[in-house]
Amino acid sequence: MAAKRTILWFRKGLRVHDNPALVKACEGASAVQPVFVLDPWFIKPERVGANRLRFLLESLTDLDASLRARGSSLLVLHGDPARVIPAALEAWRCDRLCYEFDTEPYAQKRDASVNEAARALGVEVHAPVSHTLWDLDRLLAKCPRGEPPTAYASFLKIAHGVGPVPPVAPDVPSITPLSDGDALSDGKDLVDALRDVVTGSGIPSLERLGYEPIKAGEGFPARGGETEGLARLRKMLARTTYIAEFKKPQTNPTELWTPVLGKEGKVKGAPPANPFEAAKKSSKEPKSTQLAEAFMAPATTALSPYLKFGCVSPRTFWHELRAVLDVELGGKHSKPPESLEGQLLWREFYYLAGYGTPNYDRMAGNRICRQIPWTWDEERLAAWEESRTGFPWIDACMMQLKQEGWMHHLARHAVACFLTRGDLFVHWEAGAAVFDRELVDADWALNNGNWMWLSCSCFFYQYFRVYGPVSFGKKYDKEGAYIRKYLPQLKDMPAKYIYEPWTAPIEVQRKAGCVVGVDYPAPIVDHAVASKECIEKIAAAYNAHKNGTAGSIVAAGKKRKAGDGV
DNA sequence: GCATAGTTGAGAAA
DNA sequence: TTTCTCAACTATGC
């Protein structure tokens, strides 16, 4: 076999461990050039928030360092990948292109276009699967009629039916660069399409990309990248009690990022005012070996952004987790769907649903999505998005999203329910778009799937189970520490009123320095009234669905209980 | 055709 | 603290 000149195209999968595309790229290669293309379609503040972009840039910096340690480096290009990649293949006279397979519609379209151009150039393309536990085409082939299940238990059967999770790819100790006089490091010999290659360090800053810098004390409280992601994974895996008992629905959405120890669980004492600074300090000045192992974490693992960008391989996560569950815990631990492995399987569940469902990210033309007459009320949507619904629990969650690009899973439930079926009856697509922009871990399949879940459009249908915008947060955090952190205007409100400041006597509001209607908005809806109206509207939509699909009107009528009206 | 398990809520009643 | 109800649906097994 002739030696191959190869472009290794990074998109997700920003790692050197368990990277089958990297392994393939180095197989019989005379030279390999790793590239990442900053796609201007994505890189703008209205589409990708500063927190996620910063996480991406940190991940690229870390990847570049890992590649340099292997004799190579990452070249960051700007432009539409459908033009940039074929141009680079041609300019560098490459005959092989390797990248990680991507199941999202945007990526599928982009990759089809690149593949076609590559074929025309006589370039062979390899796109191995490593972003999901299994090859989704194999899972899809096991689905009845090729339609992914909308119930978790059914998914588990299909997943187990395709066999064990494939092993991780071997490590690649060295990568041969394109060093034969091509001078690629600054991209100076590239064709016109590549003229705006970023020079210097190669990886631009947020500001260079037209973003405002993230304020001190704000931002996602952990660094992006494979090195940090694997370190956090392994520190989490050392917490065997935490892993054994992990039940996602029972974790606390109001828990702030606090120092965590490898074996011991939470560090004693009050949480620091600024977790990010505290973490840096504690790693610089270890008071003991135990403290040196401490890392900042909320109630859940916060590994989601590392999985989203592929800084951490889901298969590495899976196999290392299984080793702890089977060997150290001897099988005595929580089980899916609530357990940690259950969380990886939820991810796979949504990825499969997204891969096998046309128009998955919208209501119209979406086979699995209930058709519900949501509104696009811009005032309500803006109030929700800008933390001025007048419900401190909801507004604090949305402020954490804005500042850090992250909030706990159940906080996402609370605000998504509030926007859609619980109170405001605004379209889930509008909420999904906000999450897609702001979340550091925004993941197309998971985000749209969860919005369908929370809006009772698919996967979950008990629309009368509504999260209370007052009761839900209060259940976890009676004193309202979470609200006080993210809504400082309420920091002196007595605990008795902090979830419902409009019920506080005016003298209490004045004393707290927060008068409702002046310093903090009055609630935009009466929850009791709004939720009742929402439930009625969804019931009507469900009835219309029943009467309009499978079986017949007669069959649907037979199921109706007395007193259903009509 | 029917029963059943599963499925990440709140609040009253026991 | 546990149980029940409130306006539901999917998938499976018999």
UniProtKB/TrEMBL annotation:
Q: Which residues does the annotation say bind FAD?
A: 300-304, 343-350, 441-443
**What are the alphabetically sorted keywords of the record?**
FAD, Flavoprotein
Domain Photolyase/cryptochrome alpha/beta, by residue range, is 4-133
Q: Name one GO molecular function term.
A: FAD binding
Q: Per the annotation, how and in what number is the cofactor bound?
A: Binds 1 FAD per subunit.
Q: Which PROSITE patterns match?
A: PHR_CRY_ALPHA_BETA
GO annotations under biological process?
Answer: circadian regulation of gene expression; entrainment of circadian clock by photoperiod
The cofactors required by this protein are: FAD
For site (Electron transfer via tryptophanyl radical), what residue positions does UniProt give? W374, W428, W451
Protein name in the entry: Photolyase/cryptochrome alpha/beta domain-containing protein
Taxon lineage = Eukaryota, Viridiplantae, Chlorophyta, Mamiellophyceae, Mamiellales
Question: What would be one Gene Ontology cellular-component term for the protein?
Answer: cytoplasm
Xref: InterPro entries: Crypto/Photolyase_FAD-like_sf, Crypto/Photolyase_N_sf, Cryptochr/Photolyase_FAD-bd, Cryptochrome/DNA_photolyase_1, DNA_photolyase_N, Rossmann-like_a/b/a_fold
Q: Tell me the segments the record calls region Disordered.
A: 263-287
Q: Which organism is it from?
A: Micromonas commoda (strain RCC299 / NOUM17 / CCMP2709)
Would I find Cell division among this entry's keywords? no
Give the family this protein belongs to, as stated in its UniProt record: Belongs to the DNA photolyase class-1 family.
